[in-house]
Write a sequence for this structure.
């Protein structure tokens, strides 16, 4: 599958786009352990960034700081022009703009698939139920499982659950989607169905930040790859450069171990 | 030889083991032997008790239920019961009232304290912890006595003890407030309320549908209560027009009167047998696989035989053991409908409800709250507060455990889609915590109900206290014990059934 021209950019084009996520010198400690050491990066509108790195390198911590599931202790984070501070109004604003998909799906097991999706539109966006349900069914159609609307999450396969989780995040009509190892808990034959949905999302022009171990996906879809190790960004670059001609030794070591 | 092994296997299969090693036979023998043993033990105990009672010249029997017990009760629906049965009934009603009120209050308080215990607010957290530790580490009886002593320290009861003389008195005799009571036209008015509720439900559904379709706020629940209120107000003045409803009940009573006893006996037996047949058929259906009926195990056979024998025993019971049961059933249902019929019609065009202000009964030198008002005696108040707070402490821990049992990912997912904390608690966390908490919560409800028997410490007339008095006067210990046990058993089974119903209904669907 080839990526359409819409998602490959010249650097001039990229520079003219708005900054969606600014991470400036972000620090995070767990007790004595420093998980993030001055992580600095900017993600542009409609850009797809894949974050790679060995486990324990701080990729998940960083992505979870961006919608305040973890609290950063140094530096600053701004999402779509809103600074992430202790101001609860800003936190709420950012969470409405940012959708997130987790490794463990985290669907709500006690309500149906459709209710999982319509929860936020009804309670956060205050949409009438009829409209929210229509939106929910449209989203299920988009992720390819419209027939599962009235089942409970426990009755679905892992791949289907993760696609519901994507639909649930999309129901808030976010401008940015964060993916925290979305395929790591899936059986091999289910990974593809989730990746296909993510590719479709990337092609539609969503700003995406993806933590994953799927090198094929990274190579095919990413505009940029960020490689992290020990809480630091080691190397940043477009995929063809990153996979074929990495500059840093640590990147070469990582690639030699996984490819 | 290649077929040696096969031949050995075939011959081993053909050879039946001796019966004491045959799994099927052994299983049946054990079942039957256990049954015989249990029946024998019951028979032995019953006959021993009977022999002992005869030897001591004690007569058994429930005739004390129909005799004037000659006791005064200080609280409940009837303070001068005409028969022993009525006195026990007053005690049962008191126990039930205390239990239901206690369960509701303890649940609300318990959830509140449980959530507070998990609060990030240091102060709230520690107060909740302190409350839980204080309540659950001291015996309930001590709590009751402490509360009783504290409430007894209130002002002495007089006509002007306040706070609103003639309407609300708070004193060491408890709280007395005005009492609302059912008056002449109540049941006719109730018909209006019933129609109002049906109409209100209809309107509520309409408004709800409109809200879902358009998103406009249509206040479905508010309109339900609005419709009911309109019917209540109109019915307050127009209720005599429903006087004819009594004739329906009278007709039913007349019809019941002409049904022959034998017909009821046959019908009851047929119902028992039909239920057994229905159960066995359903059971067989559940054992049916696409490949045909699965092989039934010995336990399956035992269950089916048990169902069949049970139905036959029921029939024997209706025809031979207690033939009077059917006439009792007929008479009491006829009486029920006749009583209902008398609640309507002639002479019942007064107001539906009345209200009495609390009064003062002078007993010698002592002023007491009189019978007109609604009095909450300090004893009951102490008992109620102690039981509620004691149980709430345990419920709080159960709720806390339930909330902690909800995976952290649920909170994160709820935060990530932007839910507010209160919405998250109400829609995501508490519903899941509730599913985990329900079975232990049921245990606490059982405990609370049984703990109401400590009413005897403050001399409140619950079932145990009334039973104790009757037992002392009549000497019918076995009978009173039996009534106590059956009553608490019935209460416990009812609570279990309700909790189980919700447990099944709320189970999270998987696969």
């Amino acid at each position: 599958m080839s990526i359409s021209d819409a998602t490959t950019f010249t650097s001039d084009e990229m520079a003219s786009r708005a900054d969606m996520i600014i991470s400036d010198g972000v620090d995070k400690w767990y007790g004595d352990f420093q998980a993030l050491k001055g992580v600095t990066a900017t993600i542009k509108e409609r850009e797809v960034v894949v974050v790679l790195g060995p486990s324990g390198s701080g990729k998940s911590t960083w992505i979870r700081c961006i919608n305040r599931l973890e609290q950063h202790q140094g530096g600053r984070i701004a999402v779509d022009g809103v600074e992430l501070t202790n101001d609860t109004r800003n936190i709420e604003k950012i969470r409405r703009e940012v959708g997130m998909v987790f490794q463990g799906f985290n669907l709500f097991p006690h309500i149906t698939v459709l209710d999982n999706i319509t929860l936020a539109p009804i309670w956060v966006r205050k949409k009438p139920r009829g409209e929210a349900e229509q939106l929910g069914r449209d989203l299920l159609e988009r992720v390819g499982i419209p027939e599962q609307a009235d089942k409970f999450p426990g009755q679905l396969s892992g791949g289907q659950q993760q696609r519901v989780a994507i639909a649930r995040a999309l129901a808030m009509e976010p401008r940015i989607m964060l993916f925290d190892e979305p395929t790591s808990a899936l059986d091999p034959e289910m990974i593809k169905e989730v990746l296909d949905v993510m590719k479709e999302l990337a092609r539609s022009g969503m700003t995406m930040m993806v933590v994953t171990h799927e090198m094929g996906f990274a190579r095919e879809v990413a505009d940029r790859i960020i490689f992290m190790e020990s809480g630091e960004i080691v190397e940043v670059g477009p995929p063809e450069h990153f996979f074929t001609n990495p500059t840093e030794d640590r990147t070469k070591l990582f690639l030699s171990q996984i490819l | 030889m290649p077929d040696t092994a096969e031949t050995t296997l075939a011959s081993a299969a053909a050879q039946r083991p001796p019966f004491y090693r045959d799994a099927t036979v052994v299983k049946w023998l054990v079942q039957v032997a256990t049954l015989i043993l249990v029946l024998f033990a019951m028979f032995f105990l019953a006959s021993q008790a009977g022999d002992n009672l005869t030897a001591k010249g004690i007569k058994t029997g429930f005739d004390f239920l129909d005799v004037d017990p000659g006791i005064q009760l200080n609280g409940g629906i009837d303070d001068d019961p005409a028969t022993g049965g009525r006195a026990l009934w007053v005690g049962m009603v008191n126990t039930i009232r205390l239990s239901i009120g206690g369960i509701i209050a303890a649940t609300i308080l318990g959830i509140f304290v449980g959530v507070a215990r998990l609060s990030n607010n240091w102060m709230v957290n520690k107060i909740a912890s302190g409350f839980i530790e204080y309540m659950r580490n001291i015996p309930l009886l001590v709590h009751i006595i402490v509360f009783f002593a504290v409430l007894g320290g209130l002002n002495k009861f007089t006509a002007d003890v306040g706070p609103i003389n003639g309407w609300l008195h708070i004193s060491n005799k408890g709280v007395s407030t005005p009492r609302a009571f059912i008056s002449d036209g109540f049941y006719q008015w109730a018909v209006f309320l019933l129609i109002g509720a049906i109409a209100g439900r209809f309107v509520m559904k309409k408004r709800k549908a409109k809200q879902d379709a358009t998103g406009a706020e249509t206040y479905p629940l508010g309109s339900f209560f609005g419709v009911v209120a309109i019917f209540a107000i109109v019915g307050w003045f127009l209720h005599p027009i429903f006087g004819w409803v009594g004739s329906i009940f009278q007709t039913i009573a007349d019809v019941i009167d002409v049904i022959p006893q034998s017909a009821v006996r046959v019908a009851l037996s047929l119902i028992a047998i039909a239920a057994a047949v229905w159960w066995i058929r359903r059971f067989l259906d559940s054992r049916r696989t696409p490949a045909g009926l699965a092989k039934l195990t010995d336990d399956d056979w035992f269950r089916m035989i048990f169902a069949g024998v049970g139905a036959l025993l029921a029939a024997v019971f209706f025809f031979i053991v207690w033939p009077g049961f059917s006439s009792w059933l007929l008479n009491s249902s006829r009486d029920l409908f006749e009583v209902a019929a008398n609640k309507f019609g002639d002479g019942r065009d007064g107001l539906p409800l009345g209200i009495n202000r609390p009064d003062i009964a002078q007993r010698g030198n002592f002023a007491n709250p009189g019978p007109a008002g609604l009095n909450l005696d300090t004893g009951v108040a102490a008992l109620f507060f102690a039981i509620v707070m004691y149980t709430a402490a345990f419920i709080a821990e159960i709720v806390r455990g339930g909330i902690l049992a909800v995976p952290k990912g649920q909170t994160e997912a709820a935060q990530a889609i932007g839910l507010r904390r209160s919405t998250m608690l109400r829609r995501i966390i508490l519903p899941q915590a509730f599913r985990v908490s329900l079975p232990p919560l049921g245990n606490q409800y059982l405990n609370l109900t049984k703990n109401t028997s400590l009413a005897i410490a403050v001399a409140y007339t619950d079932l145990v206290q009334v039973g104790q008095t009757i037992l002392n006067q009549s000497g019918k210990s076995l009978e009173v014990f039996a009534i106590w046990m059956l009553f608490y058993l019935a209460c416990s089974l009812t609570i279990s059934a309700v909790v189980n119903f919700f447990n099944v209904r709320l189970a999270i669907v998987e696969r």
